[in-house]
Structure formats: structure tokens, C-alpha cells
């Protein structure tokens, strides 16, 4: 079995080249990071005539945006009841509505920019690993219908075979509005759209220092890169789980969490049909969850937080073995299947597992999608850009409290991730 880093999605895409040469000395807006957040913001700004540059430490889409499961999901990581108790009914409704709007936004962008990324509105299926979880599904769907006006469909255990070829679960809940896509082709398409709208994207150009500065009586920021300095009126930080100490205040508010994926060899059509008859985006309701789906060429792509910490050679090899075992646990039909790919990436979680998109020390940012970033990063990147252009926005994630680590122990939380992982495993075991 393969145990070294190899990302299936990258074998399906020809990534666009970035802009040639060193970055310019001046721009209206500089965006740090060329994933969905940064490129979506750049696209929106460039279409409004703003002079925008994107500075990317590696290559276009190198971060989570080319490594994820490609699930374009409604809802947030935090459920409806918790949203209400934390933010009140109005803000909770606005947040849920934004999650639905984010999918419409992605669909429209793909259509208008002709992005070839296998997008389909296949819906998602959340499966219950215990009877108690299934009972919680019914409560969740009642709340979503009553408070947010959206219908989800409960699938009892006896009817689950129409959704999934597995005996492992106690029922499910379906949302037909969710979709799926090829994430690397999507981020490549977003980059092409931003470039052709006039944005400039500089690869291998890490921002190493950002400081307030004044040029020709105009205030802004100076961004230092190994290729030269850029002065920009405004800066957008779009560095997700890869945020470094360049923006220490933001870094202290993000927990980088590792997630890993394996992909099988292409399955016979009949087997693919048996495992996932409706080709949905599927995930289970554990804290230490699994997520899986078929690809366009009928591979089963199976992911999870097998190691919880960001990817290294060691965690990738270990995760490959753990995920293979868990895949066969869900689908015993695949006990002999060959695994062609394994890779890892880093998710961006905030301490309250809610996205945050606003301004910190004068810098704009959008981070913290907690596994829902395909749609939400695209949407919030565009919202931040709209705010910069002085246009109306629909961003309920701007004015909420943005908590840091408990007791300010940010570094301790990063080093303590294996303990956090153990805590969540125990909660899964106790079904809490
Ligand atoms: C394995 C995995 C599976 C996932 N599955 C799903 C899923 O199925 N559905 C879903 O909705 N979400 C999923 N996610 C989450 C989703 O991929 C992310 O939320 C989303 O891609 C974040 O996009 P972004 O643009 O904010 O950040 P990223 O795509 O991570 O991009 C950040 C970029 O910033 C660059 N950068 C960092 N520091 C600097 C610097 N100083 N200077 C210049 N550049 C810098 C990095 O090189 C990187 O390219 C998954 C994530 C992972 C890792």
C-alpha cells in the first residue's frame, strides 16, 4: 500500500502559472495566500477595477484548497442549537442562511467563469454511528425547519441501503442542497478567473513581514517578501491553517488541525453503485469523524482526522494504515482494494469552531471554516472584497467576538493537540 504523500486531485489538473517577475512596488490591495479565500477576494476586487496582487508562499492552491474532500456543504461545523445559544436566534439564522448562500455563490461562480471541476448538486448524507446520534438528527432537523426554514430529510436505518452500501450506521440525514466538486480543478479555475479579471498572483513569494507604512501621504502597509517590498493601501490575510507568525495576533486565534485522505484504485461501476448509489458527499457524526465520497472516475476517497496534527511523512504513513482499516470497517466489500493515494493537509479551526471574517489591527482577514471551507471560504473571500469596495455585504461573521486560546495559552494548545485528540476520541467512545 502507498504510504508516501501523493494527492489524487493534483493528478487531475493542470494548474495555471502565476504572474511573471517580482511583485510590483505598489497595489491598492495585497492579499496573502492563494487558496479559495484569497483568490475569491482577488477575483471580486479585480472585476471591480481594483489593482490587486496576491502573494503566495508556495504555488497557487498549494494549501488546503487543493487537498480537501471537495464537499460543498450547507450548515456550519457548529449545529443550529449551539449557534442559537451562542449568538441568539437572529444571528444564528443569518449564519445558517450564509452557509446556504455560499453554495449558490460557488455554483454561480463555476457557471459564469466556466470552471471545469465536476461540480454537482449531489447532496450530502450525515450518518449516525450510534442510536443516540440518530435521535439527535431528528431534533436537529426539526430545529433547522422551524428556525431557519430549511427541510432536511431523515433516513431511518431500514431505508439506509438506498443511500449507502454499509451496515455500520443507525440512520442518516440528507441535505439535497449540498454539492461536490474536484477541489484542485476548482482552485485552478478560480485562479484563472482572477488572473483574467486583472489580478496578479505571485507564487513562491511569502510575506515575511507586514508593517503599517505611509507613502506619498497615503497610509497603508509595507509587505516584505524575498522578491521585494510591496506597499498596499489594504491587506487581506487569507492564509487559513497555514497562517504563520507574520500576523501574530491572527495566528494566536487559529488552531491548525491535520486531516488525511486515502483514495482507492477506480472501482468497478457496479461496486461504486453499491457503495454510494446517489454519489453523495458522506460523513459521520463523530467528533473524530470520517468523510468519504466517490470521485468522477469511481475511486472511493476516504478521509479523517487520523492523526489530528499537521501532516509530516510519519503522520501520513500512519494515517494511510488507520484510514484503510477504517474504510474496510465501513465497507467490508473493499477488504482487498488497492490504495493508490494518500495525502494530508491542514484545516483552520478557530477556538469557537466558527468562521471569522473582519478586521484585526487594521488588516482584513477571513479564516476558521472548520472543514466547511470550500463554499464558505469562497463566499467570505468575496464578502471581504465587497466590504473593501464599499459594497453592501452579508457577513454575519464580521462583528462577533473572536476568541483566542483559553487563558492565552495558544502555544500550549498547539503542542497539546494529541491530548485534545484523545479527549475527542473519548467523547466519541462515550457518545457525548
Ligand atoms: C484534508 C482536508 C479535507 C478537507 N475537506 C473539506 C471538504 O470536504 N469540504 C470543505 O468545505 N472543506 C474541507 N476542508 C477545508 C477547506 O479545504 C479549507 O477550509 C479551505 O481550503 C481554506 O481555504 P483558504 O484559502 O482559506 O486557505 P488555504 O487553501 O489553506 O490557503 C492558504 C494559503 O496561504 C499560503 N500562505 C500561508 N502563509 C503565507 C505567507 N506568509 N505568505 C504568502 N502565502 C502564505 C499557503 O501557502 C496557502 O497556499 C478540508 C481541509 C483539509 C486539509
Distance between the first and last residues' Cα: 35 Å
Fourth-level CATH superfamily: FAD/NAD(P)-binding domain
Bound molecules: flavin-adenine dinucleotide
Shape: globular
The tally of beta strands, per DSSP, is 18
Radius of gyration: 21 Å
**Average residue pLDDT:** 93
CATH fold label: FAD/NAD(P)-binding domain
What's the helix-strand series? EHEEHHEHEEEHEEEEHEHEEEHEEEHHH
What is the share of helical residues?
Answer: 25-40%
- The top level CATH class name: Alpha Beta
Overview of this protein structure:
- This protein starts with 25 loop residues before the first strand and ends with a helix.
- It has 432 residues and is of the alpha/beta class.
- Helix 1 runs parallel beside helix 5, helix 1 runs parallel beside helix 9 and helix 3 packs across helix 9.
- The protein has one domain (8-423): FAD/NAD(P)-binding domain (3-Layer(bba) Sandwich).
- It has helices at residues 36-47, 80-87, 89-112, 131-148, 183-197, 248-251, 269-275, 313-330, 373-388, 410-415, 417-430, and strands at 26-32, 52-55, 71-72, 124-127, 153-156, 171-175, 179-180, 200-202, 209-215, 218-225, 228-237, 254-264, 281-284, 290-294, 300-304, 339-350, 356-360, 363-367.
- The protein is 33% helix and 24% strand.
- Bound molecules: flavin-adenine dinucleotide (FAD).
- Flavin-adenine dinucleotide (FAD) binds next to helix 1, strand 12, strand 16 and helix 9.
Amino acid at each position: 500500500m502507498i504510504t508516501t504523500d501523493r494527492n489524487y486531485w493534483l493528478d487531475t489538473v493542470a494548474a495555471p502559472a502565476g504572474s511573471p517577475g517580482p511583485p510590483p512596488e505598489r497595489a491598492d490591495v495585497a492579499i496573502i495566500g492563494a487558496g479559495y479565500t484569497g483568490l475569491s477576494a482577488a477575483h471580486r476586487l479585480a472585476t471591480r477595477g481594483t489593482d490587486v496582487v496576491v502573494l503566495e508562499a508556495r504555488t497557487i492552491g498549494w494549501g488546503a484548497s487543493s487537498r480537501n474532500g471537495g464537499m460543498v456543504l450547507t450548515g456550519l461545523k457548529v449545529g443550529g442549537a449551539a449557534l442559537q445559544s451562542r449568538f441568539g436566534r437572529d444571528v444564528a439564522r443569518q449564519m445558517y442562511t450564509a452557509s446556504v448562500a455560499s453554495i449558490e455563490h460557488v455554483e454561480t461562480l463555476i457557471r459564469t467563469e466556466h470552471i471545469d471541476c465536476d461540480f454537482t448538486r449531489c447532496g450530502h448524507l450525515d450518518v449516525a454511528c450510534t442510536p443516540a446520534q440518530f435521535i439527535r438528527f431528528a431534533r436537529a432537523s426539526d430545529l433547522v425547519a422551524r428556525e431557519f426554514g430549511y427541510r432536511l430529510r431523515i433516513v431511518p436505518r431500514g431505508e439506509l441501503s438506498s443511500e449507502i452500501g454499509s451496515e455500520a450506521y443507525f440512520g442518516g440525514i440528507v441535505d439535497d442542497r449540498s454539492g461536490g466538486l474536484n477541489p484542485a480543478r476548482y482552485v485552478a479555475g478560480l485562479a484563472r478567473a482572477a488572473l483574467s479579471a486583472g489580478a496578479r498572483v505571485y507564487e513562491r513569494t511569502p510575506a515575511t513581514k507586514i508593517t503599517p507604512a505611509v507613502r506619498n501621504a497615503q497610509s497603508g502597509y509595507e509587505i516584505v517578501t524575498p522578491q521585494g517590498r510591496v506597499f498596499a493601501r489594504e491587506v487581506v490575510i487569507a492564509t487559513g491553517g497555514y497562517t504563520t507568525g507574520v500576523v501574530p495576533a491572527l495566528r494566536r486565534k487559529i488552531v491548525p488541525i491535520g486531516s488525511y485522505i486515502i483514495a482507492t484504485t477506480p472501482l468497478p461501476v457496479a461496486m461504486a453503485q453499491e457503495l454510494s448509489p446517489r454519489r453523495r458527499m458522506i460523513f459521520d457524526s463523530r467528533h473524530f469523524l470520517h468523510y468519504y465520497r466517490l470521485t468522477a472516475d469511481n475511486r472511493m476517497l476516504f478521509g479523517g482526522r487520523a492523526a489530528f496534527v499537521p501532516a509530516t511523512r510519519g503522520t501520513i504513513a500512519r494515517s494511510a494504515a488507520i484510514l484503510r482499516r477504517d474504510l474496510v470497517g465501513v465497507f467490508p466489500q473493499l477488504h482487498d482494494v488497492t490504495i493508490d493515494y494518500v495525502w494530508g493537509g491542514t484545516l483552520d479551526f478557530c477556538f469557537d469552531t466558527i468562521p471569522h471574517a473582519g478586521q484585526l489591527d487594521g488588516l482584513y482577514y477571513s479564516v476558521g471554516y472548520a472543514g466547511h471551507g470550500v463554499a464558505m471560504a469562497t463566499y467570505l473571500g468575496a464578502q471581504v472584497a465587497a466590504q473593501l469596495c464599499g459594497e453592501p455585504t452579508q457577513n454575519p461573521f464580521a462583528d462577533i467576538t473572536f476568541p483566542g486560546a483559553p487563558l492565552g495559552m495558544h502555544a500550549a494548545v498547539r503542542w497539546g493537540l494529541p491530548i485534545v485528540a484523545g479527549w475527542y476520541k473519548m467523547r466519541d467512545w462515550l457518545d457525548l
